[in-house]
Design brief:
Number of helices: 15
Mean pLDDT: 94
CATH topology of the largest domain: Rossmann fold
Strand order of the largest sheet: 3-2-1-4-5-8-9
Largest sheet: 7 strands, parallel
Structural class: alpha/beta
Radius of gyration: 22 Å
Order of helices and strands: EHEHEHHEHEEEHHEHEEHEHEHEHEEHHH
Distance between the termini: 22 Å
Number of domains: 2
CATH architecture of the largest domain: 3-Layer(aba) Sandwich
Low-confidence stretches: none
Length: 409
């Protein structure tokens, strides 16, 4: 079976790209013929080493575009992507090919739906965000710094500015979403959809009434270092982008209420304001993966205060695997990985006092050690390895190939 993987970027710049690239390499090493179709380079060297074929358009994304006006046309409808993809798919045998879409919203654009609709090939889509339903891809209101609560593309949605850059940008998103819905045919190709959590499926299901959902966990690249044992618990730790939707400020506020100094690994638009308002906080910036894991391994707990519907936060699983309990917002899917009161705590999303209460509970060293042991044992009883991920995705591929509804006119 030939596998064609579509993703905006051909290099790792986030969780979605990592999963797309790791699965491409994994299937190639299993003897599958894999083609990786992407808009933005450079190509991850390990893809080439694994024998993955590449189709790179060598286009910019919003962060690398020399001209935002020119990029705007690509963002709305990437003609080159549609043309190149159509040419690639036209030469594929429908009986022995499957197309797997990971990411299109940053550079490939909705135009790829046209090529997918024209080719009589089975398609699988993994939902790393909510772009198939929501104009801003997150069901998130940046102005209010909370989940939106409006029906996507309803009158209330269209008239409300949820964009971080202004209402003009929201209108651009609405226009592109209308193209996606009514011109590209991309939603119609979402017959078989891989979701990462129950919460994600519940959020997207009303917008994809014909979809068959398959739950597949993303793989976690972590080694079992054993229980932490009697090691003294360390800091309360935040790992990720310092932005409003990630809840970094709630963590800083809660830490002050609990009388502890918060530690941040990462960077983002809120760093300067957080450093000014919380001088007791420590900001370590972005660190190499091995350094991040070392901090997680020694942490009293990872705090994950996200206030939007994240699909499957990999940081939470990695932390549990390393033996660090997790205090997680009750609104994001990360709560599904945490046994409240055993491997960590849930707290009320957006409520610094609720988070501080859970942090105070983990200031007790004995409780922190018990939760550390429980977190490590729970993760390694059912680890999210790449091999298990590939097996699950391969099962989805077989289910899709057996479903004749993919054969569209």
């Amino acid at each position: 079976m030939r596998i064609i993987i579509l993703n905006d970027h051909a290099h790792i710049n986030g969780g979605a790209a990592r999963v797309a690239i790791d699965s491409a390499k994994g299937f190639a090493r299993r003897g599958r013929r894999v083609t990786f179709f992407a808009a933005v380079g450079p190509v991850e060297p390990s893809l080439i080493e694994a024998g993955v074929e590449g189709v790179l358009l060598d286009q910019p994304d919003v962060l690398t575009a020399a001209s935002l006006a020119r990029f705007g046309a690509q963002w709305l409808w990437n003609r080159a992507a549609a043309s190149r993809l159509a040419a690639l798919l036209s030469g594929c045998d429908p009986r022995g090919t499957i197309v797997h879409v990971h990411g299109w919203a940053k550079a490939l654009s909705p135009s790829i739906g046209m090529a997918l609709r024209q080719a009589p090939l089975p398609v699988v889509q993994t939902l790393h965000d909510y772009s198939l339903a929501c104009p801003n891809g997150g069901f998130y209101d940046h102005g209010a710094a909370r989940n939106c609560g409006r029906a996507a593309m309803s009158t209330g949605c269209v008239l409300h500015n949820c964009d971080s850059r202004g209402y003009h940008r929201k209108l651009m998103r609405v226009g592109r979403h209308a193209l996606m819905r009514h011109a590209s045919g991309l939603p119609q190709t979402a017959r078989h959809v891989i979701v990462l959590s129950r919460l994600q499926e519940d959020a997207i299901a009303p917008y994809l009434p014909r979809a068959v959902f398959h739950r597949v966990n993303n793989p976690i690249d972590v080694t079992d270092a054993g229980p932490r044992g009697a090691a003294a618990p360390g800091d309360f730790l935040f790992v990720g982008r310092l932005s409003a939707e990630k809840g970094a400020r709630y963590f800083a506020q809660a830490a002050r209420l609990a009388g502890v100094a918060p530690v941040f690994i990462g960077d983002g638009p809120e760093r300067e304001a957080l450093a000014r308002d919380f001088p007791e906080a420590r900001f370590l910036g972005w660190l190499p993966p091995e350094a991040v894991r070392a901090h997680m391994r020694g942490a009293r707990a990872l705090v994950f205060p996200s206030v939007w519907y994240e699909g499957q936060p990999l940081t939470i699983y990695e932390s549990l695997a390393l033996g660090a309990p997790v205090i997680v917002s009750d609104i994001c899917a990360g709560r599904e990985a945490v046994k409240d009161g055993e491997t960590g705590f849930w707290f009320e999303s957006g409520d610094a006092a609720s988070l501080a209460e859970k942090m105070n509970a983990l200031k007790d060293d004995a409780r922190a050690r018990r939760m550390s042991d429980a977190a490590h044992a729970a993760y390694w009883a059912n680890p999210l390895t790449l091999d298990r991920h590939l097996d699950a995705v391969a099962s989805v591929y077989e289910a899709v190939r057996a479903d004749v509804t993919w054969a569209r006119a």
